[in-house]
Sequence to fold (492 residues):
Amino acid sequence: MKYGAVAAGHTATAKVAMDVLRSGGNATDALIAAYVASFISEPCMGSPGGGAFALIQENGKEPILFDFFCQTPLVKRPVEEYDFRPYTVNFDDDTEVFYFGNGAAATPGAIAGIFAMHRHSGTIPVRTLFDPGIELMKMGVPLSWFQQYDISLLKGIIGHSQIGRKFLLNSKGEAPEIGEIIRLPGLSDFMEVISIEGPREFYEGYYAKMQQSLYDSNGGSLQYRDFVDYKVILRNPISFKVDKSHIYCNPPPALGGIVMKVALERLFDRLDAVEFYSKEYFKSFYNAFISARDCQMDPGKQSDWLFFQQNRKWGSTSHLSIIDAFGNSAALTTTIGEGNGHFDPLSHTHMNNMLGESALLPGGFHSWIPNTRLSSMMNPVLVKGEEGDSLVLGTGGAGRIPYALSCTLWNLLRGGMDLKEAVEAPRVHLDSTSFHIEKQVDVHLLPRMSHEVKYWKKPSLFFGGVHAVRFRPKSGAEGVGDFRREGTFLIE
Fold:
């Protein structure tokens, strides 16, 4: 491996990361450049108006978790004053109501997080790292099938804004055809200014002041002070061992890491080998996921943070995994929710709708606590093996994230699969009503359970999109971008 390995949710995102590695940059540099590029290559997932978690490990040092997820507003105004609109998303087998509008936004952390990561371990100037993404925003990116599908789901929110209609929908208000070029020229100009002026331009300049004007006149949730006070939080990741592998993942107030930890520890309780998709396999996963859901859903066990209530939402979430030739690793999972429908006319930035996500607010809409970091199931993961092996992975999929990761890690660490097999193998998932199986199986293989069994006729993006890279000194690098969400990987 001369330069490194990258796995991402879009070919343009992955290419930008690899170009940075080729130029001598490290994993952090590549992560920053690819994240900026995702603002146009994956416009329903990435935006300066969103938030993320990143797990970074410099070679020979302990990993650090960067929490730049969204923060609730400092001030809570009367509910009737908010611009807060329902929108029903029609999935293949279900519908769900989200809320958008100016009142649905929480303070975004994306820009602050980029600069925090760069201060920590970036080696290439920020302006240089922004350049590839800025060029893509200006020149455009061909629309992939997965991005087209996401835009088609969210067209009512995207089309709420004139800018969204102009640049991300066609003349009929539908998602453009696959392969059609999409661009956000205002965002390219805005990001160029930020690359020169730094994060203060975002958190104290035009954009923050514009949010104050929306608060004053158009039912917004955020004021200027929300932006000025926003801080990236550096946390020590959760750290635990299964078999001979050391796993690092997202700590509270996020829930994804602790839920995955409970599932994996229960799965690895038994020492004997279990055949994939056998009766013992289904029994083990059902029991492990019962324990994980108990942890997830019991507020008493989550008393120090807002717990994330499981549901079956799609999750407009994407993930990046990078290992460089210097032995550094970086992983980032990001989201804007469904977006709040407000594309700023000048910067073409789409703001998040985190206060309109029922999954983040188990007490109901408007139950949020002021000035609080929202919880999430997003969970970038690093796995270190005894012989110097490094594995970086993560996935989109909202409440299904820790369960999809648990399946993949079991396939790798206990099932003995290679990385591609482990990611592409059929998964299982447990929610409040059903035990989901990504393949039809003989009913006699299933244990007695109190949940309905739901078989999926073919692989589905319902089960996430795990993008992963691994380096083993004895056999080199491997990568995989999950086909369920049109992922890709590059190794050079």
